[in-house]
Write a structure and sequence with these properties.
Elements (H helix, E strand, L loop, with lengths): L17 E5 L2 H13 L4 E5 L7 H18 L3 E3 L6 H4 L5 H22 L4 E4 L9 H15 L2 E2 L8 H11 L10 H6 L3 H13 L10
Parallel strand pairs: 1-2, 1-4, 2-3, 4-5
The structure holds iron/sulfur cluster.
Length: 211
């Protein structure tokens, strides 16, 4: 890894355990491998109530477990699909994403503090489809409120490499961000809806998201 734009994580002691929030398996693959290569202690934590419906949430959670098992990393999940705040949203889509980041990153900061860890980061920062600056600002504020550190690292230059790792593992790679409104915004929305409908009808489609 040679290309870094912003890297507060590099200044943080490698021997001090951090919490790595994972938004999905594909986005976790590269950061997990890199943190292992750096000899860092970390817990991968899945918390994404923004993923709808429950069957899609389970599918992404399965991808998370697959990556954590492949790399042999410590991992936990505390997450349930919770559509209401997203489907009832009446503001702009940009403000909806702000609400979404605030909900998830507040929970991540709380969990970091609850576990007595000093800092956290998030795999949301690898995706060029996410609002990087908003995530960083919200994460810093969430960290400040909990008395922990947000460890920024710009992983975006490695997005394609991460997707390739996920492809090689054979895990599901989604084509929409996660919430119901993002399905509507996708150019593949008809196909996605058909897929989700079939997936939701499957008896294997539910998971309480705690492990
Ligand atoms: S588009 Fe993505 S980031 Fe924005 S609200 Fe939906 S799930 Fe959250």
């Amino acid at each position: 890894m040679t290309e870094r734009l912003t890297d507060a994580l590099a200044q943080f002691p490698a021997t001090e355990k951090i919490l790595l929030h994972a938004c999905c398996g594909p986005c976790l693959a590269f950061p997990a491998r890199q943190l292992l290569n750096e000899g860092r202690l970390f817990l991968a934590w899945f918390h994404n109530p923004n993923i709808h419906p429950a069957a899609e949430h389970k599918r992404r959670l399965d991808g998370f477990w697959a990556i954590t098992q492949q790399y042999g990393i410590e991992a936990e999940a505390d997450s349930v699909s919770d559509p209401d705040p997203w489907v009832s949203w009446t503001g702009t889509s940009s403000d909806r994403c702000t609400m979404c980041y605030e909900r998830r990153l507040s929970a991540v900061a709380r969990e970091t503090a609850r576990r007595g860890l000093a800092g956290f980061t998030t795999t949301l920062l690898i995706s060029p489809w996410q609002q990087y600056d908003a995530i960083v600002a919200i994460a810093h504020e969430a960290a400040r409120k909990q008395g922990v550190q947000f460890l920024e690292r710009d992983w975006r230059p490695f997005y394609r490499e991460g997707q390739q790792l996920a492809r090689e593992t054979g895990i599901y790679r989604q084509r929409f961000c996660g919430c119901w409104p993002s399905v509507e915004q996708s150019t593949f929305k008809d196909k996605i809806k058909r897929e989700l409908s079939a997936l939701s009808a499957s008896p294997e489609s539910s998971d309480n998201g705690h492990r």
